[in-house]
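Hello again,

I reread your note about wanting to compare the complex against the isolated chains. To keep things tidy I'm splitting this into two emails, and this first one only covers the full assembly. Below are the input lines as submitted, including protein chains and any nucleic acid or small-molecule components. They are followed by the predicted structure of everything together. The single-chain runs will come separately.
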Amino acid sequence: MSERKLPMAHVHGGHGNGSRGPGAPPIQVEASSLRLVATLAVAGAVAGMAIVTAFRLTKPSIDEHNAADLAAAVTEVLGGAKTYKTAYLEGGTFTLEPRDTAGLDRIYVGYDANGQPDGVAMEAAEPGFQDVIDLIFGFDPSKGDVIGMKVLHNLETPGLGARIGTDSSFLDQFDDASTPLLGVKEGQGKGKKNEVVMITGSTISSRAVIKIINDRLGAIRKPVETYWSTIAGTSSMTSAGGGL
Amino acid sequence: VRKTTAQEDFLRGIWKENPVLVQLLGMCPTLAVTGTVDNAMVMGIATFFVLVGSSVLVATFKSVIPKEVRISGYILIIATFVQIADFATHALVPDIWKQLGPFVPLIVVNCIILGRQEAFASKNTVGRATLDAVGTGFGFIITMLIMGSAREIIGDGTWLGHPLFGHHYQPWVIMALPPGGFFTLGFVLLAIGWRKGRKAEAVRPRHWPHGVTSEVGGPV
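Full-complex prediction:
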């Protein structure tokens, strides 16, 4: 049956566009699957090359920004460090030269003009009100004090929560604050050294900042102090390149 | 269908068919990143770049992209330009790039761009597609500028970071917050609707008898 019908269908179709009923869709040439795949494959390859080219062109500039941001942040939170070295947490202890830096936790050890270590800076991040707050803070392991704090990235509410990164009366409280930090509401502080008065209207973001620093110190304090005891006083050896 | 002139291709997107104010497309960046003028401008320029680049490529290669995979093809082209825009923004204006967060990558799903490819660039010459994209892109930038200016001035008392009112001004913070985006857009659309209504009111008696409200060509 179907064999007999086919030629008929062919004859009807053979009249071309004009013979088709008014409701019939216009004839469209179906592209072969091979052509579809080939088109997207070629387009994908070209797109990939374009992206790689753009990446390579912009990478030096992006790396430069990131390094400058980090250096500025480290010197800012350490209050006057001239140089810094990155130490990596490998197998529970910090080292300047791990086998592979990928995935390792790190701290930045700041040195003053005389080559003496004057504190460590570390990054920390936890959720805030809207998104993860990423900050860096300086820590003096010999005193157990926070030296300074700078918010690296936040998407908190502009004008409210975002003040954790810009409000100097809030930020200044992290200079030489003892740990663990304690957030207090305005007017309720007792003047203790570990108290941080939270920003009115931004309590969630302020509290998040305090928690981030406390949590980070709680998790990493021991190895930091151990490492600090090995470099403090032996800094001339460190700067001379002695492997620690 | 009457062919449009080059001038019409260009001007259409700026005002008469403004992508945001008339077509109500691209709402996501319009509401999300117009809290300050510089964020709004960088987003506008990035979108402009992606729109014009994609339109030129889609119009150029429209005959070699099979219709079955055209949307995938457009998205591929758009996504490539978006990634390039993301790298460029990061390299050139890192501080603004940080604030824009995920909204630069999200240009990929901006309906304005895919809409222009499907509705115009894939059916017209490269020249006309470019004019259309440039006009639509400017229309988007202008809208972002209006939104960003209104929100930054009221919500922060500044324009491009320059204080406008001195210390006594108490910023109306809600305008910098998400609801401020909706308020501002609402008022801008209201103003445009009101102006259009007045224009129609002024024109109608000269052409139609009173009481006839149908659009030109519509069945009365």
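For quick reference: DSSP finds five helices and nine strands in chain A.

B.
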